[in-house]
Amino acid sequence: MMRFPPRRVRQPTLTFVSMTDLIFLLLIFFLLTSSFVTQEGIDVRLPQVTAAPAEISVEQLVVLSIDRAGQIFLESQPVADDRLAGILAGRLALKDTRTVLVRADQGVVYHRVVAAMDLARRAGADQLLLATERRAASGP
Q1: Could you tell me the pTM of the whole model?
Q2: pLDDT for 8-25, tens place per residue?
Q3: How far apart (Å, rounded) are the C-alpha atoms in residues 103 and 131?
Q4: How far apart are CA 120 and CA 124, in angstroms?
């Protein structure tokens, strides 16, 4: 009788190459589809503070910017004072929260910012937030 060598049973292996490819593709997908909120085109130098910034979901905010010359922008579009309340009321109606983020240049006259905040309040804003930048830490 002929003796055959015993068969070696191969152990199943799990390859992680396809799983890492999938995770890499998901990472790229989420990076490309996430929204990065930046206001481009409006030259606004925000006031600086030393306190840590608050964590806010900016997707639900209406952004009201005021440049150094006092021009008001609503979501990067210039708006006249007399039309601001009506347009802002329409934008706030589309949001879940009625919160307005005011981005005013540090050189803007104080009463101009207060007037814009008053118009926002009359348009139906429940909450007004003032944007600032974190001041660079001074040396030791």
Answers
A1: 0.57
A2: 888 877 777 778 888 989
A3: 5
A4: 7
Instruction: Residue 47: name the closest of 88, 106, 94 by CA.
Output: 106
- Which residues touch 117 (CB under 8 Å, ≥6 apart)? 102, 128
Residues 6+ apart with CB under 8 A from 132: 46, 47, 48, 49, 53
Tokens encoding 25: 């593709």
The residue whose two tokens read 């396809």 is 18
Pair of tokens at residue 52? 């840590």
Distances (CA, A) of 19 to 23, 26, 31, 54, 104: 6, 11, 18, 37, 47
CA 54, distance to chain mean position in Å, is 12
Residue with tokens 């990076």: 31
Question: Would you place residue 73 in the very low, low, confident or very high pLDDT band (cuts 50, 70, 90)?
Answer: very high
Q: Which of 17-31, 62-76, 82-96, 125-139 has the lowest mean pLDDT?
A: 125-139
> In this structure, is the dihedral angle defined by the CA atoms of residues 72, 78, 80 and 86, taken in order, positive or negative?
negative
